[in-house]
Amino acid sequence: IKNNVTLYHPSYTDSKYDIKPAEIINGKKYLNTPKTSSIKNPVVMRALHQLRKLINYLLKTGEIDENTHIHIELAKEVNDKNWRKAIADFQKDNEAKNKEYRERIEDEAKANGISLIVTDELIKKYRLWVEQDKQCPYTGKKINFTALFGNNPQFDFEHTIPRSLSYDDSLENLTLCDVDFNRNVKKQQNPSQLSNYEEIAQRFEGYYEDKIDDCLARIEKSRTHGRYIDPSIKDAMIVKRHKAELELRYYTGK
After folding, report:
1. In whole angstroms, what is the distance from residue 224 CA to residue 163 CA?
2. How many other CB atoms sit within 10 Å of the CB of residue 45?
3. pTM of the predicted model, to two decimals?
4. How far apart are CA 176 and CA 134, in angstroms?
5. 23 - beta bridge partners?
6. Separation CA 4–CA 8 (nearest Å)
């Protein structure tokens, strides 16, 4: 405020940070979920989830405490115009996909006689459902729409690396899993600790192998290989490569 005039800044919006209190586990304070309606960029949210995971690990191991000051530097993606364009295109594609999934959920719910309000969490479930070929990677059971979205869901979110170990709530660390298996078999174990790990790994590879190959092919196709190309065309190719690299990070992370 200057001379009784309030200046406007774009960050002053009605959407507030949904600040959550720190989690107390075994007497130690840990950062809670970074989820907030104030940030829409999925790349930024992924970075915040990873940052939270790292900080909570350092807190757990005693490398830092709640009084430690941490300096964070922006990655080169934020300062590079082609990376910024790739991130914007990546975000736009995700928004379009989420809109499509919302419409699909509404149509399928109506067809199955299910009454529900489509939330971001349900859209996440639908996305994982599609990615996992409508199958539970841990049991191999097929997942139908009613079993996932009905009044008595038989499949729900599961943290691939247990949340108590990873502090990671990102989509990359979530799968849809049979509720009984998740609660009574997997519990706080990593997939590699399970007796049917080889079957689980094969299913995951089946879900994402073609997607990873497609990303790698697009990355290679968009390389200039040192030859002269019109600058605008070259920038467009670089943007396509970066966008494919963003997708690749997600799929390889899965």
Report:
1. 42
2. 16
3. 0.71
4. 9
5. 30
6. 13
